């Protein structure tokens, strides 16, 4: 995997990559101040009704993990050629997006995009690390947000602990890793619009999916969106996994 994909090239700071483990992600969001009513859970299939039925509903966010080999650089370059860099800020944004400026932290950015957007945002505890960080970041453009996130000792400490708590040996923060994380979230404006959130791209990407009232991200439209993403990337790589942010009570 190239250094630009892993987020290492020219980065001021690097984090231990998170293991794609829902327990690790759940521990991290709780440490950051998300209510214990939310948790991440593996989605084992998008085709098997029995396996889909194991996922509690509604699903508030999705994180897709996929092998990002060197061809993913071309995806990022094409994005730069076709879209201007996002400069949105303030309460009127349909979504809150963070540019990835911390090396090997794509899991963190996907997690942040899930808990800071759509209905999940309502589960941030007052005066928690995440709610305080969001108050600082919302009025700022992506550059300002990046500096706030890089400077957060609380986030760095929580991430470091989570990075070491997986089932596998934690890699070095500057190692090249072979996977990338993207999130799928709904607009905070309650319009049902679904966005692809990748901190390595130019900004949030509004998809052509709008959820109907009562439909969640793991409904038919959301499943199709994720399947299309996987089919698009399968020509370059194999080995995908999916986690859902769900209510546990």
From TrEMBL:
Top-level taxon of origin: Eukaryota
InterPro entries, per the entry: Papain-like_cys_pep_sf, Peptidase_C12_UCH, Peptidase_C12_UCH_sf
Catalytic activity: Thiol-dependent hydrolysis of ester, thioester, amide, peptide and isopeptide bonds formed by the C-terminal Gly of ubiquitin (a 76-residue protein attached to proteins as an intracellular targeting signal)
GO biological process terms on file: protein deubiquitination; ubiquitin-dependent protein catabolic process
GO molecular function per UniProt: cysteine-type deubiquitinase activity
Residues with site note (Transition state stabilizer): 100
Keyword Hydrolase: yes
One Pfam family it belongs to: Peptidase_C12
Sites marked Important for enzyme activity: 198
Active site per UniProt: 106, 180
Record EC number: 3.4.19.12
Sequence ranges assigned to domain UCH catalytic in this UniProt record: 14-247
GO cellular component: cytoplasm
Keywords, ordered alphabetically: Hydrolase, Protease, Thiol protease, Ubl conjugation pathway
Family: Belongs to the peptidase C12 family.
Protein name: Ubiquitin carboxyl-terminal hydrolase
């Amino acid at each position: 995997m190239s250094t630009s994909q892993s987020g290492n090239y020219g980065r001021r700071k690097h984090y231990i990559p998170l293991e794609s483990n829902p327990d690790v992600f759940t521990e991290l969001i709780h440490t950051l101040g998300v209510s214990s009513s939310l948790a991440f859970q593996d989605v084992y299939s998008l085709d098997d009704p029995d396996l889909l039925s194991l996922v509690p509903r509604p699903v508030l966010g999705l994180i897709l993990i996929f092998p990002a080999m060197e061809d993913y650089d071309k995806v990022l370059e094409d994005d730069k050629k076709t879209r201007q860099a996002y400069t949105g800020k303030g309460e009127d944004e349909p979504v809150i997006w963070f540019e990835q400026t911390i090396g090997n932290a794509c899991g963190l950015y996907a997690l942040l995009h899930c808990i800071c957007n759509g209905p999940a945002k309502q589960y941030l505890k007052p005066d928690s690390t995440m709610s305080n960080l969001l108050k600082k970041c919302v009025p700022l453009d992506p550059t300002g947000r990046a500096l706030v996130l890089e400077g957060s000792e609380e986030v760095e400490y929580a991430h470091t602990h989570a990075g070491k708590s997986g089932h596998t040996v934690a890699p070095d923060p500057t190692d090249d890793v072979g996977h990338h994380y993207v999130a799928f979230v709904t607009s905070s404006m309650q319009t049902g619009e679904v966005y692809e959130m990748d901190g390595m791209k130019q900004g949030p990407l509004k998809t052509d999916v709008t959820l109907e009232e009562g439909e969640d991200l793991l409904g038919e439209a959301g499943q199709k969106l994720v399947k299309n993403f996987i089919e698009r990337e399968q020509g370059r790589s194999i080995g995908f996994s999916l986690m859902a942010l769900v209510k546990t009570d």
